[in-house]
Specification:
This protein is of the alpha/beta class and 588 residues long. 36% of the residues lie in helices and 18% in strands.
């Protein structure tokens, strides 16, 4: 049956067709939809794990027990999962183990642009790179076979363009695969130093076999062009960009199995053409290997190192003399639309109040609340990685103490991110007596990636009710004194203001938990459908203090403040800010 699928949908479908038993992930764009789609296949156990390291370890445990298992994550998530990844290269697998890394060239939703192909060569595990949705489906099935044949985890590397683009896919039937028997074998699965040293020799032998496979597998194939003047080595989405520009006039070495790379096949292909180009995004992963084996090629010296490739970029870089493709033009200047916290966002009140303290430093984290950096709020000072708000805040506060300065650190972290990697930072703050204020912005969902469940929501990915972790109890268990914890409604500015003041004056670790569901949760939208705010123009003095909240429902035009009724959800932040009581609820 033919279906129009995104790469993420195709990966989920292909894994199911391959007889997958267990799937685990932590949501992160561009990989989130893999597990969301996997959860529709009820014969596969699927879970949102606490973080990517946990997801890979869940998948690894299932694999060792004999099940086919998959872990999915965005590129920076593999940094979190790197610890088990490198050791799993030594232990090998039992049931097939596939690890999806979704890289983000162009930084559409990420804090860096790292190229995770190097993880495969560094960890010494097989790697596959599909170039469209059909290959996502086909290659993930092949990945499970390769994993079991070579006793290795397989890194399945995709990018944003592949994850989110739709192409036609020929789907198949599910292959029934039994869970393999498990035999106790401490020399294989217990990586004490003595065992690990022996497994290193097994890893070396495996690499030699995979190199031979790389030379013969149809995943690495030559496509002959009309002439032999130009040859292009490429992989992933870059193949389609090259094909769009050069068509069938040139020859291609299309690489789908990209670690280990096929040295002989590359040499033979290079010898068959006069000029060899390497077209790839981000790092010169293929190019460096090709040059290392003594083959001349043209790549990074022409192609950009920053941002994702497009057909236009490839054409400008390699064929600057050719005419640029003609597109459509309009005589309208589109106004900029920078990202902002949504109208009615539960985080706005907290950022508005904490921004009044000029000596407060806000160490931020990964989530919607990163947008606390955007004017007019402009409160967030740092964002590094998941969980770094708390542990980075500890370091910042210690430096402030050394310098005898007066800054006070407020760490802002979401509920899902706190469960992911904020807990250890909070323990560090408690044990090392750091008087920072940890602000857990609990909107009862993993919001930024599209509303996924987390340990604080009381639901699993598969729609089952489960234990709902109590954030306050968890903080107490980490050592925070109960009298140093405040649970507040962030829509109540007086309550928020008082908690921030108390935290500001505290000389011990202090925690503020702002608890209100995300304004975009469907039930919240329905409940607030008739709770809009309005401006009484007779009372409004045009002071624009309400605009300092940064709410996109508020706008100032023609000398007056207006509230966009379609955007407003009646959170009343602006109403509480207004000094002239010119804003009221429509239902009041």
């Amino acid at each position: 049956m033919k279906k129009l699928l995104t790469g993420n949908e195709a990966i989920a479908r292909g894994a199911w067709e391959a007889g997958l038993h267990v799937a685990a992930a932590y949501p992160g764009t561009p990989s989130t939809e893999i597990l969301e789609n996997m959860s529709q296949y009820k014969d596969v156990y699927s879970e949102w794990s606490t973080n990517e390291k946990v997801a890979l370890e869940v998948a690894a445990g299932a694999s060792i027990a004999g099940a086919r298992a998959l872990a999915a994550m965005k590129h920076v998530g593999l940094n979190v999962a790197a610890d088990p990844l490198f050791t799993l290269a030594y232990t090998g697998v039992n049931g097939g183990l596939v690890i999806v890394t979704a890289d983000d060239p162009g930084l559409f939703s990420s804090q860096n642009e790292q190229d995770n192909r190097y993880y495969a060569s560094h960890a010494k595990i097989a790697m596959l790179e599909p170039s469209d949705s059909q290959e996502c489906l086909d290659y993930v099935k092949e990945a499970f076979s390769i994993s079991e044949e070579f006793d290795t985890p397989v890194l399945f590397r995709v990018t944003t363009r592949i994850c989110h683009s739709k192409t036609l896919v020929e789907t198949g039937e599910k292959k029934e695969v039994a869970v393999r028997p498990y035999a106790k074998d401490s020399s294989k699965y217990v990586m004490a130093p003595a065992s690990a040293k022996k497994r290193k020799f097994i890893l070396d032998a495996r690499i030699k076999r995979m190199k031979e496979f790389s030379e013969t597998t149809p995943l690495n194939r030559v496509e002959k062009g009309k002439n032999s003047e130009i040859g292009i080595v490429t992989s992933g989405i870059s193949y389609h960009h090259a094909k769009e520009i050069f068509g069938d006039d040139v020859s291609y070495l299309r690489l789908g199995f990209t670690w280990p790379l096929p040295e002989k096949k590359i040499r033979d292909f290079a010898a068959s053409v006069k000029t060899l180009y390497v077209i790839e995004e981000n790092e010169p992963y293929l190019e460096d290997f090709i040059k290392m084996i003594g083959v001349d090629c043209i790549g990074r010296d022409k192609l950009p190192w920053i941002d994702e490739l497009t057909p236009e970029t490839v054409q400008r870089s390699l064929c600057p003399e050719s005419a640029a493709p003609q597109g459509y033009s309009v005589d309208v200047e589109v106004p900029p639309r920078p990202p902002v916290l949504c109208a009615g966002c539960t985080h706005r009140g907290f950022f508005y109040e904490v921004g009044k303290y000029k000596d407060v430093v806000v160490t931020g984290d990964i989530g919607c609340y990163t947008l606390g950096m955007v004017p007019p709020l402009s409160v967030t000072d740092t964002v590094i990685c998941m969980g770094a708000s708390v542990s980075g805040g500890v370091g910042f506060q210690k430096a402030v103490e050394k310098a005898k300065r007066n800054e006070k650190v407020f760490a802002a972290i979401g509920d899902s991110t706190f469960f992911h990697s904020g807990i250890t930072g909070l323990i560090d703050a408690v044990v090392n007596k750091s008087p920072i204020v940890v602000n857990i912005l609990d909107n009862r969902i993993t919001a930024m990636t599209g509303h996924q469940e987390n340990p604080g929501t009381g639901m699993t990915l598969m729609g089952e009710k489960t234990h709902q972790v109590d954030l306050k109890a968890l903080c107490i268990a980490c050592g925070v004194k109960e009298e140093n914890i405040r649970l507040i409604d962030p829509y109540m500015l007086d309550e928020t203001k008082e908690a921030i003041k108390t935290g500001y004056e505290a000389n011990e670790p202090f925690v503020i938990i702002t608890t209100a569901p995300c304004a975009l949760i469907k039930d919240v939208i329905k409940a607030r459908a008739n709770m809009k705010c309005k401006v009484d123009q007779d009372k409004c003095v045009k002071c624009k203090l309400c605009m300092r909240s940064g709410c996109p429902a508020l706008n100032f035009r023609g000398g007056s403040v207006y509230i966009d009724r379609a955007s407003c959800n009646g959170c009343t932040i602006c109403l509480q800010i207004c000094p002239k009581q010119a804003i009221s609820r429509e239902d009041a």
